[in-house]
């Protein structure tokens, strides 16, 4: 039997083994970095349940968000559309009723759908779920198991289980025992001081609490006898809530943990190094459910990648940065090796979100900057103006510290790579009708960039929507 015939027979066998109407559970962390998890190599962070899901499923090493900002990222995932295409590209903007969530074709297929915990999509699309139950304790997870227990037992189900962990502000006591300073691994973009370590340790604790509730839900699925017929996905909505992470279109902002457990398709312990985007979640879930694909989807299904991790679904993925506390308009394209970034208003500093401006880590960085004790990598946060264009070799520079377009030694090869990536970004913007409206038409800063406090008389878009 030749290789093509064997592959066809294997594909037919795998397809026949897949449940006709699998259940779906998607766990969404709030501000968790992709590598702050044991499954991605962190040596001491307490994430045994995520680590087990990775051992029993597939770990995606090159998964990316369309936006490193809470509500735009979530709206993008649930519609399968880029933030600027949803009508809710800025933080706190509600998703318009004209946008269709992928729960709609699931419900038409007979699924029960529930969103439990953090919502942050506005009121207009609530009717597209059977149940929206916000809140649930300090981390937003306490209703998860109860909703799973009380679901209709005669229907397949889709559960969007969204935490507020590990979003700021932090308080001790999220888990017992807590992480210690010895557990902390400080990325090179931060100074390695005790204050920064304390800040990171509390952030780790909330990741630990998120992980504990993942374990409770998985245990309940097992008790109900539906664990192995349930597609489980663990993701984050954006990068860690620290300087040069959340809200950026750099690796620390838009790279996400992405762990899938689904035994009918996924081999235990498998790893995928191909590019995948969170915009691909919607068409993938709909395909596996046997429901009708929406014409509005802008992503691609990664079902084939679950069978064959080496399958290449994307040659490039795209991310954007719009208003999140501050005026912004940045776009980025990432390929197998490079990330290209364009900033339409480089005169503005790379200010982190307002809650991170008020963090111990940012206070330390400002103090050490004045003392002349920050490294060049750490000083890049304060650089003004920021680069209008940047190109990073993300395989060798995962924190995007070395802009290959700067300096006098730019090679012809780098120039060609720059032109290629700029062309990709320009084409994507044309295809998705994304244009810079002009700085005067962008939403102005709603918070002071130095203090992180709200500017009197300047309201955030739809401030009544809570994070």
TrEMBL record:
Supply the InterPro entries for this chain.
Alkaline_phosphatase_core_sf, Sulfatase, Sulfatase_CS, Sulfatase_N
Q: Which GO terms describe its molecular function?
A: arylsulfatase activity; metal ion binding
| PROSITE patterns per the UniProt record, alphabetical | SULFATASE_1, SULFATASE_2
Alphabetized, the UniProt keywords read: Calcium, Hydrolase, Metal-binding, Signal
* E.C. no: 3.1.6.1
Q: Where is this region: Disordered?
A: 445-467
- Pfam families for this protein: Sulfatase
UniProt signal peptide: 1-20
Annotated Sulfatase N-terminal domain ranges read 22-123, 144-291
**Matching CDD domains, A to Z?**
SGSH
Homology family: Belongs to the sulfatase family.
Annotated protein name in UniProt: Arylsulfatase
């Amino acid at each position: 039997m030749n290789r093509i015939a064997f592959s066809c027979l294997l594909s037919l066998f795998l397809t026949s083994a897949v449940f006709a109407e699998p259940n779906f559970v998607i766990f969404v962390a709030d501000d968790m970095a992709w590598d702050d998890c044991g499954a991605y190599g962190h040596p001491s962070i307490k994430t045994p349940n995520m680590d087990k899901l990775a051992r029993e499923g597939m770990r995606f090493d090159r998964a990316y968000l369309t936006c490193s900002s809470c509500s735009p990222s979530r709206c993008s995932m649930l519609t399968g559309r880029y933030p600027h295409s949803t009508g809710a590209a800025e933080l706190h903007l509600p998703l318009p009723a004209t946008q269709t969530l992928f729960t709609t074709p699931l419900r038409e297929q007979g699924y029960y759908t529930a969103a439990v915990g953090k919502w942050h999509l506005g009121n207009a699309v609530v009717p597209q779920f059977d149940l929206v139950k916000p809140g649930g304790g300090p981390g937003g997870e306490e209703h998860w198991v109860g909703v799973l227990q009380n679901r209709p037992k005669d229907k397949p189900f889709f559960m969007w289980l969204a935490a507020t962990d590990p979003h700021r502000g932090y308080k001790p006591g999220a888990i017992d025992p807590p992480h210690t300073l010895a557990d902390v691994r400080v990325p090179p973009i931060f100074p390695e001081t005790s204050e920064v370590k304390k800040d990171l340790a509390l952030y780790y604790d909330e990741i630990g609490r998120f992980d504990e509730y993942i374990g409770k839900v998985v245990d309940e699925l097992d008790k109900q006898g539906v664990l192995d017929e349930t597609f489980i996905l663990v993701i984050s909505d954006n990068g860690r809530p620290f300087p040069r992470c959340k809200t950026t279109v750099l690796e620390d902002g838009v790279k996400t943990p992405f762990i899938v457990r689904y035994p009918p398709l996924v081999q235990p312990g498998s790893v995928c190094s191909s590019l995948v985007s969170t915009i691909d979640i919607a068409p993938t879930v709909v395909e596996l459910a046997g429901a009708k694909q929406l014409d509005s989807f802008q992503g691609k299904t990664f079902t084939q990648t679950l069978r064959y991790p080496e399958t290449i679904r994307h040659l490039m993925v795209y991310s954007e940065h719009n208003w999140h506390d501050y005026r912004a308009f940045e776009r980025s394209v990432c390929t197998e090796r490079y990330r290209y970034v364009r900033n339409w208003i480089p005169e503005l500093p790379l200010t982190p979100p307002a809650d991170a401006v008020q963090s111990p880590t940012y206070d330390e960085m400002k103090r050490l900057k004045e003392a002349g004790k920050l490294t060049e990598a750490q000083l890049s946060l304060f650089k003004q103006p920021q680069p209008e264009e940047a190109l990073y070799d993300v395989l060798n520079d995962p924190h995007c510290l070395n802009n290959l377009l700067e300096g006098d030694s730019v090679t012809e090869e780098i120039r060609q790579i720059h032109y290629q990536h700029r062309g990709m970004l320009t084409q994507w913007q044309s295809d998705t009708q994304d244009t810079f409206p002009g700085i005067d038409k962008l939403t102005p800063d709603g918070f002071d960039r130095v203090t992180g406090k709200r500017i009197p008389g300047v309201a955030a878009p739809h401030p009544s929507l809570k994070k």
